[in-house]
Amino acid sequence: MMEEELHHSEHIPQWKKQEIEDIKALIEKYPLFGIVGVGGIPAKQLQAMRRELKDVAVLKVSRNTLVNRALEGSSKDCSEMIDYLNQQCALIFTNENPFKLYKLLEQSKTPSPIKAGAIAPQDIKVEKGPTSFPPGPILGDLQSAGIPASIDGGKVVVSENKVVTEEGNVVSQNLASMLARLEIFPIEVGLDLHAVFEDGSIFTPDVLAIDNDKYFSDIAAASRQAFNLAVNVAYPTTATISTLISKASSEAMNLGINATVLEPEIMDSLLGKAHSQMISLASAVSANNEDAVDEDLKSVLGAAAQSAAATVEEQPAEEAAEEEVEEEEEDAEEGGMAGLGALFG
Fold first, then answer.
1. What is the mean pLDDT of each run of 10 residues along the chain (345 residues)?
2. Where does the record place the Large ribosomal subunit protein uL10-like insertion domain (predicted)?
3. Domain spans in the chain, listed from the N-terminal domain onward
4. CATH class in words for 118-187
5. CATH architecture of 14-109+190-210
6. Which of 30, 88, 217, 333 fits a disulfide with 39 by CB distance 3.0 to 4.6 angstroms?
7. How large is the angle between the packed helices 315-338 and 295-313, nearest 10 degrees?
8. Of the candidates 118, 121, 58, 112, which has an alpha carbon nearest to the alpha carbon of residue 90?
């Protein structure tokens, strides 16, 4: 058996052995690598992509058989990545995290004309509107390709919105030519990430394709909920202590007023409460019998009525004050967001 393996290895050209070793060295050098599809990318465009990525990643194009041997022989135990190899693949090596790599590759894709005989990746539509073409044979060419066209104002126009071919259909030569002339580019050309290997884990595009806006929105919502929970259960942290002290002070003052606790800090509030109760009682008595209330008390009731009217007029100012308080609470919640790490630390 060993003789057969030796005999087999002797027939591997030196350049292939060196290529396998170079790939294994790259796998060892970088914390992660991915397998990308390069099918359908013109050589010139592929070289341009390689230049654009040179500061953040290394793109290695090699034969699948050599890549297969390198993956099997790597000390990182990444042989499962072989399952993501298919025709026209390349390896990409980087120090970035898998999510950033995926986003980078997606952003680098560019619209491109679809070729005759290609499968439509989605429904291909033409939009109603003018074209740059003068009347001529182009009108018949468009119509023969299934594109509704007519002449209007001395120009060829697309007369209506239409799906000219559905997803999964083969694109004809005539339609591909007309779409290109209309500058309708239905496909995106770029490096198509199949999978990423990092620290023994394999990440596929369905995992890496996250919605950044939703992700940050969820974090913000979690922060607000955590802050509110900590305040409601009186859990002291650097993020919640100011709110907790303010809440405790307010609750203590309310308790003192309701229980009529004679303390200097709340005497004004207690006197105000007693005065209000007196006014309320005098008003009820006066309503049944005006003679039961003396002139001095009637004067007090009159002043109270005027004060109530003035309070109604000042209501917008109070609403503005309430809005200011709400803004302060929102600021406190944002402070909770900043201190989310300290919340449970």
1. 46 87 94 91 82 89 93 92 90 94 88 88 91 90 91 90 92 92 88 93 92 86 92 90 89 83 80 78 71 64 62 55 54 49 41
2. 115-184
3. 14-109+190-210, 118-187, 213-310
4. alpha beta
5. 2-Layer Sandwich (3.30)
6. 88
7. 60
8. 58
